[in-house]
Amino acid sequence: MGADLFGSFAEATCAALVLASASDGLNDSWVSLMYPVMISSSGILVGLVTLLILGFFYTVKEMPDVEKSLKGMLVISTVLMTPVVTLLSKYCLPAKFDMNEQYSDVKWWYCALSVLLGLWSGLLIGFVTEYYTSHTYAPVREIAETQKQSAATGIIYGLALGYLSCIVPVISLGITILISHSLCGMFGVALGALGMLGTLTMALTIDAFGPISDNAGGIAEMAGLPDEVRTRTDCLDAAGNTTAAIGKGFAIGSAALVSLALFGAYCVRAGVTHVDILNPWVFTGLLFGAMMPYAFAAWTMKSVGKAADEMYQECMRQFPGIMGPEHVAPDYEKCIRISTEASLREMLAPGALVILSPLVAGFGFGKNACAGLLTGAMVSSVQLAISMSNTGGAWDNSKKYIAAGGLGRQFMKGSDAHKNSVTGDTVGDPLKDTSGPSLTKCVLNHSLL
């Protein structure tokens, strides 16, 4: 859990530290040099304060209040982090300093603004993600309505929802990058990524809430607990699906900012002054780079299908003995081994694609082709990751909405509408749990590293 967020967190911190050490105005002061680390560590303290005061602002009295409370954690932590970032910037940074020849006379509040842009962009991405994945709002309810007719219409609406959900996050990322880079160069972009991850403690908390409540629901059902227990766990699970999607939104947005900072480092090291798409090598690399996320997603999704088929065959082999008169004990270790071995085996091809592509492009066709490849992968994977993550979350919550009686009691569990929603949820699981979260980390940052 949270490997993508922790990876972006570490990479953003390291990128900001490296860029700060290269600045003559910052590397002669230990306090200024530690400014990125101070932002990261202060976010932990802000998270603790948020948990202490959350109950005063968001009280959980009814089941719908759960989702509001979880979302409120992000709101409160973002509001508290704003003055903390401003004061840290004022205290740690000199009034003016030079990053390089192009960015001279950088003021301390330029850095503060860059961090705050990332911080509030992250909150905006969280709100947009919640709107498109929570059954409290119209998009998910529209999917549920279409699933009265067939699973196909629900899948069509879910795909459309995922594509639409890219618009606002991409605009907010573009604005953050534009202003931060204009003020402080790549140092500003790295600070924007740190700002987006300033509330990482809260993002990880609400992200972990989803699978915990999901597993609690599974235990309640297997244990044969009363229906009202399963109803409560379903409510918690639905809220957890939304908050997990919010966490993935943070991971995707921060990875996009970090990838740009890493790409800037590559251009400096390789001596690439500009990426000209009129250059045939650059344009060829651009096309191949834009293709990489789709190949990666295809392989990871097929891997889920293969592992599921192996698991199904093993369960069918064991069931006659388990359910028969001899009551053979289930072989749990074999099922665990199937899942573990499949996860390692099936990542060989996607991993090789990510690691070898920039090496082949760079050594085989030159630095410009490699720059085009990285640029295409960076732009393409952000859109694909956001749409996949939100589509899968919306399908999952549409199933929860129908099961809870949102369309009426005649459409609850066992109805055709619910069966159609289960089909959509099954399709969405590899999108939101496998391909979507791994795209930005593997295709973007690992290939750049």
UniProtKB/TrEMBL annotation:
It is found in: Endomembrane system. Its EC number is 7.1.3.1. Keywords: Ion transport, Magnesium, Membrane, Translocase, Transmembrane, Transmembrane helix, Transport. One of its GO terms (molecular function) is inorganic diphosphate phosphatase activity. GO terms for cellular component: endomembrane system; membrane. It comes from the Eukaryota. The chain crosses the membrane at residues 38-58, 70-88, 108-133, 154-179, 185-206, 250-272, 278-297. PANTHER family: K(+)-INSENSITIVE PYROPHOSPHATE-ENERGIZED PROTON PUMP. This is H(+)-exporting diphosphatase. It comes from Polarella glacialis (Dinoflagellate). The lineage of its organism: Eukaryota, Sar, Alveolata, Dinophyceae, Suessiales.
